[in-house]
Every structure is written in structure tokens, then in C-alpha cells.
Amino acid sequence: MTTQTMPAEGAASPGTIHTVIGQVVHLDPHDLVIEDNIRTTVKIPRSFIASVREHGVLVPLIAHPGLDGRIEVRDGQVRTLTAREVGCSTVPVWVIDRDDERRLRIIEQYIAGVHRMGLSEADKTKAWRQLSLDGMSVTAISRQLGAKREDIKTGIAVAEHDLAAAAIAEYDLTLDQAAVLIELDDDPDAVAKLRKVAKATPARFDHEAQMARDAKVRREELARVHAECEAKGYAVVDRPAWNDSTTVRLADLQTEDGERLTEQNYAGKPGHAVVIDARYGRVEVDHFVVDWRKHGLRKIGSTGTVVGGKLTDAEKAERRRVVANNQAWDSSETVRREWLTKLLARKRLPSDAAAVAATILATQTGRVARAANGGHQMATTLLGQENRLGAHPLGKLLSRTPSKAGHVVLAIALSAMEDAMSRYTWRNPGPDDRHYLNQLAAWGYTLSDVEQIVTADPEQATQGAPAEADDDQEPQSEDPGSNVDTDEGEGTESEDDASEDGAPADAEQARRAPDDGEADDDGEADDDGEADDDGEADDDGEADDDGEADDDGEADEDA
């Protein structure tokens, strides 16, 4: 609810009210006059309205008698307006002696409106948990306190978890951030790292948390696939080294009768084994045969160039860097798009949003066209709409709420940029992506390390994420999957070494390329071939300038 408060002069007199200075009296809020106030526009949180409707006004207003006998409210305009809105018959009023000095009124209203402390997130979680222990349901707590049910459920879980409860009390964490510590409870190293981030660089917490989540998903998927293979009776082995001539891919072998081996016709037979890796963003199972000669098998004719020679230490370090940065990019993409969803959910967009959207739509024609050909699916998702058969969801949104036109246009523009970005963006950053990420940062988004590779000065670009990888990330051999039979002089090019994204097909080039083999979504590097050199729209660094009240149920706006 937004209300324009009016000065005391000109207000209709409801009649003289007899009060005693220094006492708290209960008066009809409609009989009160709101004194001139330094806050002229008031945005009242829905949660506060719900609280007053349920409990009435608990904290007395501060007021004094006017010259005509009317009671003028000095501190408590939000409480007064809300009480009128929900139909309270009376509100408590502490009546003080009148002081006509304008400077003193302004000072008192400023102090009352600014110098007050609301409950911390830790305080809220403790209160919710205590009410829960006292037998109140989440729904009842929500109704009584005007808080969201999901927040209460999360808060109770945090309060009941020793580590999360301690972290939210010690650091400036949100409920969702504290809940991440519960989610990663079985990974003490990740939790310890997140606690350090919360203390030293809290703005980076969401990025670190998402990377830890993604690493956990990879570990769990590896364990699941490992268990499935063992249940089938498959022997699980490490990936063979580049020069291991005794272990060969199953697909490169045949029987003495010339029958090619497949998983279906050779599974569980002598020497059959599998290698399980989390690589290229997915879990892969490769089938091999150990000691293939002993089992009467023969190699199929060579299908590629023999790859020889170990990787240098520098090449192995580069591979580790690529793997780590690719995974960091995936995590950053999740965090960035969640942030975009929140940005587009604001009632009021940044002041330069229209200019930024217009610049993208006018200059990034290739990207916008591809997004349009895809039905603007990402824009639809970022705006919280569902893709269904029939009329386009964005059209239906605009029909229902024409005032959302600016949000839809911005979503279409930002989504066109997002759709065109991939893991290859950090390896081949261009000016368009650099401008785009810098614009998000100007609006308040915190860039991750790998995103800062894109935004860095091209001549001073850093290496980004450290060359670290989990056990399930780093290829386990210098030349994985390349098995050269030195006796027969045959060998095959590894499918892992052959680039899938248009890199040179030559095996030696593929072996030395830092690429991780992940295929590009559209096979294109620069989507429209145009550099965004229009100077970029007003990059004023504004974040959320909508001036909306904090929807936390606190009566913290009623100077």
C-alpha cells in the first residue's frame, strides 16, 4: 500500500479529544492527524498490514495535542495509516507535551525512523523455532507473524542445525545461504570453505555455494553409476595410461571369427571392465577389455592416427585449468540466471534498463534472432512463465499486465545475450559479452572468478579459477583412451582426444588442444560478428532503485 501523507494543516477536525500528558490512551486512528513528516511517501509491506490486521498496533504512537485540541501524530504514521486500512477501532497513543519547534520535530522523526534495529535473521529463526516447539504449526506462525511459510520452514531447519545456526548468527547470511550449509552437511571441506567466504567475501557466497552443490551432484552421480555397474557384475577400473597396450576399448576389438565386440555381446565375459568418469559435464561409462590377447581377441584395423608421447606438465596443468573453469562457468551460469530472475521480478527496474535493452535489440541482431527462433524460451522462464501450447506465454502476460512491457522487453534482450553464452565464452571472450557482464555488475550482480576472465582487459586477462579439480574431474592419463599396441603397430585415436567442437581433427593437435571436448551448443563463436561499440547505455551502477519497503514484517518505516 502506497500513501501520500498530508500535512496537519487542512485536515478536517474530528473534534477535541481530551487526553492527559504522559499517559498512553487508546484512540480511534481516524480521529488522529498525522503531523508534517519528513517521509512524504510511505510504502507499507503486505506482511505488516497482515500483522496489524491480526494483532492490532502493539507499539504506541507518539503524539501531542494540537492547538485546536486534535491529537497530532509525530512518530507512527505507518501504524496510523495501516490501522485505518485494516479497520482497527483504536490504537495505543503515548501523549507528550507539545513542542512547536520545527527543527526538533524533524530531528525526532529522523532519529525514530533511522536509529532503530530490527530483528536479525538469527533472531527470527530462534523465535520461529521456539513457537514451533510450543506447538504452533508453520501455517499458524505465518498467520500470526505475517512471515512467509517457506521462510519459516527454512528458518526452523536452520535453528535446529547447530552449524547453520552458528553461521547465521556469526555472519551476515540470508536464510537460503544458511540452508546451504545444511544441504552440504556431509562435505565438511565445502562447509569450511563457505564459512571462510562468508567472513571474508560474503558477496561471493552464492557462487561458492553453487560450485559446492554442483560438485556434490557429480559425486553422487558417480557413486550411483558405479553402484549400477557393480550390480551388473562389471569390474570397475581406472582409466588406462596412454601407453597401456594390455587394456583396449571394447569397441576396438573383435573375436577370432571377426565379430565386433559390443556391450551387449561381451558384457561380463573374461577381461571386460568399465571406466567411470565425470567429464565434459556428464558421467560417462567406457567399456574396455583387460589382457585382451589372453582372451583370444583381435584388434580391428586402425581407425585413426597413433597418438604418442606424454603430455608435458604445462599441458596437464592447462587441462586441469580448463576442467576447473568449465565447471566454474556452469555454476556461475546457475547463479547468474537466478539473479536475473530476481532482477526481472522487481516492481521497478534499474533506471537505464530501457536503454540497455534497446542497445541489445538494435546491435545484437544475430543473438536476438536466434532467441526469437527458439520462442524466447529463456525469457519466458526468467519471467516465471510456463511454456505451454497455445498463445505465447509472454503475450498472455502482457495481455494480463500491460505495465510489464518494460520487463518483457528487458527479459528478451538479456536472454538473447544469455542464450549465446556458453563454456566457450570464458576461453574466447568478446567485447559484447564483456559489456553484458559489466552491465550486470553495474546493476549489483557479483561476478565470479571465471566471469571476471570475460570482463578483464584483454591484454591483462588472468587465468581465472585455480587449476584444481576433484578426483572425478581430472583425466586420469596423459592421453586417455589411446591404447597403442606396440607389437602390432596398430592404434586408434581416442574419442576423448578427438575434439567434438570443430577443433582440428588431427590427433596430435587434438591431444595438445586445451579443449575439454565439450561440444558447442550452436557451433558458433561470435553470434553476430558485431562488436558492441556504441558506448553502451547509461552504466550508472544503480542496483535496485525502486525504493520499496522491506517486506519483512518490521514496522521500520513509520517515522
Automatic annotation (TrEMBL):
Source organism per UniProt: Jiangella anatolica
PANTHER family: CHROMOSOME-PARTITIONING PROTEIN PARB-RELATED
Name this protein carries in UniProt: Chromosome partitioning protein
Occurrences of domain ParB-like N-terminal (ranges): 25-110
Compositional bias annotation for Acidic residues: 468-477, 485-500, 516-559
Example GO biological process: chromosome segregation
Region span, Disordered: 458-559
GO cellular component: chromosome
